[in-house]
User: What shape does this take?
Amino acid sequence: MMARKYILTLILWAAAAAAQPLSISSSVDRTSLALNQQLVLTVELTGEGANSVGRIDLPDVSEFLAMIGSGGTSQNIQIINGKMSVQKSFTYFYQTIKEGSFSIPPVSVTYKGQSISSKPIPLSVSQGAATGGSGSSGSGQGVTGQTQAQPLPASEASDEDLFIRALVNKRQVYQNEPVIVTFRIYTRVNVSGYALSKLPETAGFWSEEIPLPQQPQTRNEVINGRKYVVADLKKMAMFPTSPGRVEIGSLGVDCDVRVQARRRSNDIFDSFFDDPFFGRTVRRTVQSRPVSIEVLPFPEAGKPANFSGLAGKFSIQASIDKKEVTTNEAVTFKVVVSGEGNIKTIPRPNVLLPRDFEQYEPKVTENIQRSGDRISGSKSFEYVLVPRFPGEQRIRPIVFSYFDLAARRYATATTPEIVIPVAKGSGEVTVLPSGLSKEEVALINQDIRFIKLNAPEWRRKGGAFHRSGWFTLLWILPLLALGAALGYRRHLDKLSGNIAYARSRRANRMAMKRLSAASGLLQVEKQKEYFAEISRALLGFAADKLNLSEAGILSSELESRLRERGVAEGTIGEYLQLLKVCDYQRFAPSEVTLNQMQGIYKEAKEAIINLEKAV
Assistant: This one.
């Protein structure tokens, strides 16, 4: 009996937790610390309402902790079967200032008029070294915490307190030699958020993005006696395409700046990222200065005739997947160029194949590693070859020439000759005169005509043309054309005089056009623009069908108008859920896999088709 009650209690608790639209938890990286040691506090919001919370109330811990700043926010959105799960994390940094045993009070938020709080966290601060206690966390309900200190007026943040630099590893390079440029922000004030407002101009370069952590990693640097918090915002490998002096453009960043009203100790500096919901902020735009690069041409002395135009360090390999083949049996010939440099621009190697081989366009595969200051990888070319005649076939060595940056001279990589023994297959092999090409064989096939063995079928020639059906059709055809022209004219008049009719007729065509544009953005992995185009397709189609303004349409208005048209609740729900998912990805983007984005595309197309049938 007790077991049944226990199971029933667990089921009811799980159901209540699943129905909870928002939960909050707080945790620290350790519970036992030394005096003046740093502490990391993490606050996590989980649930549908995570993005609706406008403020987090941190508890007053000034008695034993001094706030250094925050590490900003991170967000994780998962879309499973069209349903969205949101998790949002906030990180704060503190420093211990007093010995003793303490308790971090609950962290609170207000959601739909209700206060939701985490559980308190015990903390122990000692004079000696930290005991290395493990982190602790708390969750549940509680009371709201204390508010934070008010910020100083934004005018106190000067240009020396916030700026961006474009740092390059070289200012003089050879053509196609990579220049690693890092756009780094320096701040002595509190930056609660940022957005890239201007991307650097890269004319004259082939650029490769070097991935950085999704959450910028901050550290301290001292410049001219001043301590700054710095973080790398963007990193690129730039390959100049032609000699001369070229310029890397400036990067523009819009920053939300908040300056603290007072410092809690002489050794505390404002953080790089802070909670965007705290205090009064002001928008500041900063730009890096353009950087000039001198690009040297490749030396003419010793330049190979088959020079690839690449600079770096490369090697080449060639292989076949079978040691022995028979006639009319496919064999894969693979050429791999690997090394360090501009992998994407590796040209197709000059492969000299025996003329007795049938060959097809190669399959090209790239494998690029972007890490640190290096761009390396490989590019493979897979040829499908079909030998037509038996015998020993030879693939000549492949020569690949490049400019060795370390040695400052031209270098050549070569593959060995490959011998392929071809045996006669089970099928018959047509023996052709030597020296004939495939084109000549095709011409022979066209020149030969075979004797017709059966007598042709003869029929009597028809009567006079004016008695045939074709003559009657020629008389009727002008009348049909006139009727079609009048009908089309009436259709055009209706389009010009009835806006609702015109919008309804073009709705499907415009929606499919926007979905096609979204498909193109999906191929180049532009996530934010992709979801924006899907949203425009959905909103535009509904607005055209209902004769509403696309710019000012609201979800509630769209829902009521669709109900008036008698659209099924399931169709309306799917349509509005897709719009909601797109809005989240436009304004609070998170990592979404390519398969999930393709699934959203299919769902959007089906939703438009279903709404077309219902309206």
Q: What stands out?
A: Residues 499-614 form a domain with the Four Helix Bundle (Hemerythrin (Met), subunit A) fold (CATH 1.20.120). The chain has four domains: 20-147, 152-296, 307-423, 499-614.
